Fold these 4 entries.
Entry 1:
Amino acid sequence: MTPLNHPGTREPEPDTPDWHVTAFRGPRSGDGDHALLDAVRALRARILFDHGRRPAFRRADGTHADDQALDFGAWHFIARRSPGGPPLGYIRLSTPDTGVPFQSRDFLGAEGYEELLATEGFPEADVFEHSRLVVEHRARKLGLGLHLNALAIGAAHHLGARAMIGTSGTKDGQDRFHERFGFRPVRGTRRYVPQYTEDVVIMLHRVTDGGGQHHDLITRLRAEFPVIAAAGAGPLLPAAPARRATPVTLTGVAAPDRDTYRPVLHSADSLGALLASGDVREVHDTIDEQLTELVRSREPACRDAIAVERKKREQLAGAEPWEYGTWAWYPWSGRLVHVLPREEFRLVRTDRNRGRIERPDQRRLFGKRIGVIGLSVGNSAALTFALEGIGGAFKLADFDDFGLSNLNRLRGGLHDLGVNKAVLSARQMAEIDPYLDVEIERAGLTPETIERFFAGGLDLLVEECDTPWVKIAAREYARDLGIPVVMDCNDRGMLDVERFDREPDRPLLHGLLGDVKSVDVLELTARSRTELILAMVDAGRISPELAASFGELGRTLSSWPQLASGVALGGALCGEAARRILLGRPCASGRFYTDLDQQLDPSRDVYAGGAR
């Protein structure tokens, strides 16, 4: 096998923005002005806190803290999009003369660290450590982490390192990220670290082995490091423009809840503490109207007001209306909502489905467990399922956060910006039916999370992710487990159905990719990724608009063009296919188009020519 650092295996560097990076050497403890270092620590801690994912990085007073002695004497690199812009990323490089034990030494213990270096043949004076690579969410898809990592390695090479060592998280594939730079995990060093809420492993890099897939970038940044170092740090934050004093103060205003997605269900006798907490902003109690609907759902012919009231009293069986049913508490909005008990709630909520979905089939559907991967287009499918009563339990997976550019097609409000898409979808589903059982995988589907996602079984998978590895790996699992898969392409109304529940040997994606496996597509260049996606969607059948967009991605287009109307249609198509599959109705494997351009062509007008 050709080694990773062989020139023939190096992939061209992805097209990424030009980053403005500044650097400074931290003062020794007790020496000089520490204001810049303190600002860097606060920036770093806020990003590491990650909206509550790592609570150890926030103090009780709400400020963020990541004060490490290793900061003194180390090199600190700060990246921006432009010289005057806000800092978007950071990395630290520690040298042998930093004077403070490396993180990896603390992780292994002094004896374990010294034994490892002796085994590898390196004196401590030749080993550098880079650590604390952090990138703001809004810059994580722009290649900034790659640029900073390469710069720290290049700087270490310039400064005379023979080897580099460091600790790496594993939850989101950080260890595999470092492997692309020529690092390798050290066997037997992986263990769980509560501060980071994930497993951590020691990674080691030999300078003589080159820079892996990014050797050329590291070499270029090694040459640039002296210029960056000589320029100095400059101010961490851009100068604020002069402005008039704001007429209001936001001091003491609570930050938005971006993490909670499950409602808390209360009985009437457990409401006291919640109401006394002051967390309830609104109370919605329409139980009397819901009871009226319950009576009329059971007996549509009962329209006499007196008879309806009598049947409502019979339903209460002596209980007061406020005692009946469930109080659903939605922490993210502060709303407390009174609803009927689960079976009665669902009977009323899906009553208008009758005539299309009868009650025995409604109960069958509520017993199903459905997975949805990719909650952009998948959000429409998930909400359609929740509205229609397709599924009573769900697994949702998406690593991305809801952004302003998603508001052209995803249901949500400005107050939802910054919320993980799986969290947002789970909240929206819970606000339709608080009794739904929803689990989420907010890291999305990765080699570390995929087995957990499929654990417990699924009756149907909706796959709407843009990542080739996820598309193939999810289907490999689904085929092995006999789970049918549906996918909407959001172009020409294309619906893809793969009945792995009936066809266990069916080729993935109808054989369009040959026998390619997920392991083959873990690392792809931008060009290879585009070619693979074109093969998946069958390039000869896509719309002219989508075909034209491929060459403009990253130039005049920031991402795939998508419209709310197409996403809504995709949710409807996935819902129709899912209902048929789960109820055993006809729905074969295949690829089907509901092309609105064709459907709305004047030639299809049934009244064309004045016919009636």
Entry 2:
Amino acid sequence: MQSHDTFPSTDISHAVPPRPGRNDAEAALVEHYPRLVRLAHLILPPALGRHRRVLAAHALVQKSLAAAAPSRPGPAPGPTVPVQRGEPGPVLAWLRQGVVAAALRAAAGPRWSLGRTPLPTVLGLRLFPGAGGDDELALESTLATVTPEVRAAFALRVLEGLTAQSAALLLAAAGVSAPDEALRDAERLRSTVGTDAESLLHGAEFDPCTVQARPTDLLRRRHRARLTALVAAILLAASVTAVLTLRSEPPAPPTPSPSDTALAAASARAADPELLLRAPTDRWSDTARVDLTQWPARGARTGDTALLSRALNAWAQGTGDPTGIRPSVAPGTPTTPPAAPARLLFAGPVDGSAVVLLHDGDRIVRYAEPLTGGGHAVLELARADDADVTTGAAVAVSRTRLGARFLLAPWIDESAVRDLLRPDVPARRLAVSEDGVTDPVPQTPDDCGHVLALQVRSSTRIVEDHSFLLADLGELSPAHLTWTPAPGTGAPARQPREATSAAGLAAWARSACELPGLRGTGVRAVNRWEFARQTLPERAGRATWTCTRAESWDGRGRVAVAWEGPDAHSRPVRVPGPAPEDTAACSRFGQHLLAGTYWTAPSGARYYLAGGSRAVTAITARGPVSATVRGQALAVRTDTAGEVRLTGTVPGSGELRGWGEAERESGGS
């Protein structure tokens, strides 16, 4: 008894089917033509490109008739590959072996020679199989990483249903030097794919007989036509010169490694507009994953293959694009080309440009080219990994002097524009087109006379019926604004919440002028945390200690600590301290904070104030001011000046240093 991974030895002499007559071969080929073309298409390398791969598969099958006998042959000279699954006989076995051998020879040749067959020929059109589902795309990507011999073995075992012995005999007869090894690799691949392997191979992704047609790049074709006469003249002159000159044979191009072949195949698939992923229109309303992956493709040009192809090519070429496109990359965003087919979010005209929005799971890409006149296309890349209901609710599609237009998520039911500096003024309704594109939202001026934000409400169809604020910081995705109110006596710790309540809007009115300073820094969300409240001396009212944390898409956060007086119209006083690119302060992993500042009372008396977060039980000041108090607030009258060293007591966590203390110590060491 043989083990699962052991295959019988192969004898080529027993694998050669009888050579049929031409009439019998043609009849069998016509009857089984889709089956044979699918087999050749599966073996050919994906790096060939979808159009050339389809034509090459058809050509290889059609050329297999050339080897048939001109007249009906006699009886078969010896044993043949056993008939499988109701095959009509040895004629199909002969055709199949010829197709496998021809496809393997084509796959082993230089890349430039693949698919160079006289017929069939298609001019002015690109042909490609229909796009399959996620499972078919995953299988296609996996097949691109293995050798043609393994693909042939996989096809014979799964698609053709041959036994291991029959497949080994056929592979050996087709010229495979190690059929047993190819079959073992194919079995491992088959076990990885599972029981759906056969149904997936019969899907649209692997059917080169049911194809779609699109035009080639019409503008590029015109340019090529104009160059045809010049190229022909140059070739004629070169051929005459070559007759008179002895030239050595150029070296054969190097054979690409499997990894290079797989990379080329993945790149070719990523640049194919027909493979772009498109979510069904209403999928977002019936899924547990409400994010950018559920956006349907919207816009008037989602079917414009030429536009989509230019967008994908610009993305793939990146900074090396010779056409003049200079990508704009948000901080922390990888610039690598796409490794797999991306998701199409939008394609259509906006403000005089043709705009394409793509999403590859980790990044959003915006491509825009002018509809008329001069000017270069533009390309923008920004991170969008783990975008959710709020951070994936809008994407900028256009920026003009009138403002920015946004494409809203399909789960946004209401949208408005609000001035954060005027919390008592109702938000102004923002008109949205049928495709989900908003009217222009004016940009916040540099003088902080207005700080505009989007106020949107999600649909009740996703059971997330709530409103939230989004601030445009000059990038593709606006930043989500949240608010953490001050702790109350005996109340549990409060998590960040939406800032659309009256109290939340009033709080952000104090911090809104800090937002323009975050433009272009890759910010995903900004939270205003009121970590302490303090009653001021001389009955001057209550002050608030705040920590504003701007968090990037990669999880890094920059923090600003401030003290706000009782006058709601006064500007916050920034507390000097560190400005690191990454800190845990004011996050769920940095919930303890202590800060201090000098303050002059309305009477003219000078005080030193300090406030600590809810877990602080005592505060000690040393230096120009020396005092110790129990609780979360300290107020000491003083006529001195200078840096005060603060420490706080946090039960179970040891000593808490004041904001900026660690920086001053490291700077003085």
Entry 3:
Amino acid sequence: MHISAPPGRRRACAAAVAAVVTCAAALAGPGLATADGPPAPALKLDWSPCVKGSPFDCATAKVPLDHGDPGGRSIDLAVIKRKATGPGRRIGTLFFNPGGPGGPGTVQMPQNYELFPREVRERFDIVSWDPRGIGSSTAVNCFAGSPQAQAWARSKTAGVPVGEKERAAWIAAYQDLGRRCQQRDPQLLRHVSTTDTARDLELLRQAVGDPQLTYLGISYGTYLGATYANLFPEQVRAMVLDSNWDPRAWTNDASDAARLTTMLRLGSDRGAAAVLDEFLRLCGAATTVRCPFSAGSPEATRDKFDQLLRRLRTDPVGAWSYGPTVGDVIGGLYSVLPGWADLGGRLQDLWQGRAPQPSALPPAPPVPDPSPYLGEEQPVAVVCGDSPNPRDPGAYPAMEEASAARAGDAGRYWTWATVGCATWPAVAQDTYRGPWNKRTAHPVLVVGTTHDPATPYSGSQAMARELADARLLTHEGYGHTALLNPSSCVQAHESRYLIDGTLPPAGSKCRQDRPPFSSDVPKGAVSAGEGGTANILTSRP
């Protein structure tokens, strides 16, 4: 199960004015209390260059496995930092979570560092970490080595199972995964919840010496941010939540009796279907130079796509059958540039009977382990321990058909994304399930993209409604997260908010800098709501 992107794309995808935040440029030392539990030992971060010559510093944090038992077993968190680049202008630390769940911050923050607005990089140390259970931290790892993990992955098709035989193989594979994980470290499985990670974040905030938290979370990182904001509302200095999960949908309104899967409750199927339709429309309106899959018109391109998927069900091109292709399409929608043109190229290859070449991964960052183990059991452990899902594997085929009726191929993909939860052996011991309206010390900035294939815009609207004091900034564009699909307008608003607390005017909207399949670069000034015009900063990363 890959929530942030299908297999092969997680590293790349991984892939964020009525009130003013007041803060001093020099920050005082913190207290050491945690919410709802005894004090944890003081956390110390011994920073050193990640590798020789690296501009990033690394450290290892030891935190309690169980925050309710701080004297018990401890686990390690891999932490990374890039110091503020503006001499004498540093405000504090910006913590960043890259989403997932399962995104390794020690890899994805360095890869995406240049996407943070220049003003933010100048004024803040940017810190990220591999959350508990993930990557280079104490990780959920249910195999003795890579041969076992690879054999498990080969036991089921990629993307979407087709037919009774493949569905049975999927269900059996995840049952096997759950048994393996339960045998290796059952205690860890109960302590990788979002709530556990939010308590880790509070300890990290204290360790860097900031009296309040400054935070940017994208995708799943928005739910982590909302959880922190309601556990530690007085500690919120500034918080940007980019491409949001509806917190009530994630928790199933705090009920364990789930009729639909997590991702269907979040509306990811309908969101992905709408973005796929936009991809085919815009591709069909473009030349084949800009979108190789174009058939000359939106209608013809949609028909061509449907024909291709029907053909791949019975006549695959090498390993590219229907299931893996649908998974690749959903992942290809996440990043507009160069993702959409690349996706068009792969679809055209398949149309012509050629197996596409795999997409190149981004350059490895200068860190000790640029490619940590990121097995499927890591996001499975977080989602299935945290969020209720139907516990009967036999219910998933009917859910698939219902979702396909409203969302087509995307509905089939997102239905099966959490089938591992049907037989997962662990439930999180510590989960915060609401309410979501505790008043924070300062307001929260919520950013939502109108055409998002994973976290639909309705999720950002819901997040802004649920939080006690939040302002919604609308990103009129495509792809998953404004961070990875940049808008200089969004960046300007985020910079002002993070630096001096100035929120965008109510109703503010921003456009994407570069539309899909276009070389045109709009200026980015848009309606700011309430009849005004946004005062857009001109700087870019």
Entry 4:
Amino acid sequence: MALQGRLLLVCFVSIFLFFSLPGHAEALIPTIPPIDSIQNNDLSISPTSTVSDELYFKHTLWGGFIGILLIMCFYNLVFYRSTKDRTFIYYSCYLLLNLIILLSDQGLTALFYSPQLIALLKNNLVLFYLNGISAILFTVNFFRMHKHNYKVWKIGITVNCILVGLLFINFYVPKIGVFLGQSIIYASIIFILVTNYNAQYRYNRIFLMSWIPIITLDLMSLVGNYRVILHESIIYQLEPLAIIIQILLISFAFSERYKDKELKQLYFSTHDPVTGLPNRLVLQKQLSQLQEDKKKHTLIIIKPTTYADARSSFGIRHANDYLTEVAKQLNIQLSGLDLASIDNKNGAKINHISRFNDDSLAVILYDEITTDLIEQYAFLVNAALEGGIYLEGTYLVGNVDIGIASFPLHASNVEELQQRALQAVDLAGKSAEHWHIYQNDGSQFVQKKLKLAADLRKALMNDELSLYFQPQIELKNNNIYGCEVLLRWQHPEIGFIPPDEFIPIAESAGLINDVTEWVVEQALLHHKSILEVFPNHKTSINISGQDLTKRDLPVQVISLLAELEIDPSTLVIELTESATVSDSLDANIVLNDFKKIGVQIAIDDYGTGYSSLAYLSQLRFNEIKIDKQFVMELDQSKRDQTICKTTIEMAKSLGAFVVAEGVENENIANILQQYGCEIAQGYHFGKPMPFSDYFQWLQRYKQTA
């Protein structure tokens, strides 16, 4: 038998024995004074041999009353054991103290206690104060004040501390202690009840009603004590009834509260707790219903581009507020479209939008969407956000990426439809229009991307990557300046995979930091070997924009430089222009760490990004590398000549070296030298080669130069 069952069995057995006491306790009853006589302090009672019907009835009623309170105490303890909710502990204490006080008031303590203890209970207010403290604790915990109204919870705790202090005052000034204690207890409970009353919740109303009889009687008792208006015996007879009513109503309130809790849990299992929107489960159910009914439909996933910025700048809570406001605007803007209702239970406001995941929303459009209509829908979606969303004193303005997939055109089930809409929204972020309809070839592309990500992880573990080195030459005297380290991957099945294909995969799969660590370690080991023969040789290593968020990258570089005894000024870190702009804050922090140890900084692929001269000047770079697309046809293109000449002049004004990539012939090298370019690299001097070949090339070049 479960513990709850054993406890209840003990309670019922105890009550049965208590009820049967008047029927078989003829030897004990003569010693029990009648209740009315005890209240009138008439102790000259003549023993009788039989129990009168009236006395039997009164003892039966009191036995039932005591039994009910004991059952409730045990029952609440059982609930506490299963729920760990301290509310039940405080409620049990409140009931038990009420029982002891009532027994004392009615004179029934003579059945259980010694005369000395009875006198103590009558003349001391310890039980009364403890009862008030437990009542306040029970009330604030029932309303979950420590979670929902912390200020009121602190007031309740403060009042309890005051009551403890009044206990000591009561020993010296009893009348003041009684009056203050009763006033504070009643005022506190009424304050807590009124403050937390919410007619929206039924259990709230019932709990408030449960206190009306007991508070009314206690206030009448207070008036009777100090104004001599009411007869005290009437109140004593009504108190057990008031407590029974309170027990019934509080039990009902507990039941309603747990029912409300279950309804909330059920609601939040189908709705997002932050925005209140239907969640993905509701969306899937609606999609399943449409597919069962063989109705054509289109899933549109909407991803606000500003959400990530709002989360990083203002925090998750405000980012969720932003998404909530976006959903409201979209619900208004898209209301004229033929959208499926995702959630309209119990006559509530119809919802056409669901929260698909953390940063995106979804709608279902009846029928398949056509290409000529998608621009109209994209315009409507963006129109909802063109005015901006007001958040923390700032208007956040941004576009949305829209991914679209239709049933049965693009998918045969719910899972496929969601997967392909997600693929479409990912591709939408890379397009100028910011929307994309799923294409069948897109699935193959994504599958290939996932496979390459898994293979790249294996390649790192199995040391399948390799480094190639391309020489850099000083144009003024044809001396060796250094080299750029280039990463290569020879896939065992596919063959050679260019870096511009697998580096983005490494970034999206979260592998780029591991790749960079491997490149830095291997490149510095080779650089150490080169420096033993060519002490002034510089080695350039490329890092990704995502490496800028890894604050311990400079620490790794410092450790390796110290371990290998390499002069930091011979190492050059290359970073693409676009990466420095998109991660400007982190870029400055990481690049400054490199500069402090003496590592040189180069801006790679200059001209392909979108930075300003003023911004680049703040980075205080040491080198600027002109992208090869502006160099390879330099001897034929006036436009490229203007770009290169202007870039070189700009770099010189900032005190930086210029490295030109893609030098294919001597004529281009001569033009660059005339413009004042210091360093060049390209096939004219040497193609990228493995380290052993590059080391031999260095030795040959040194001999022939």
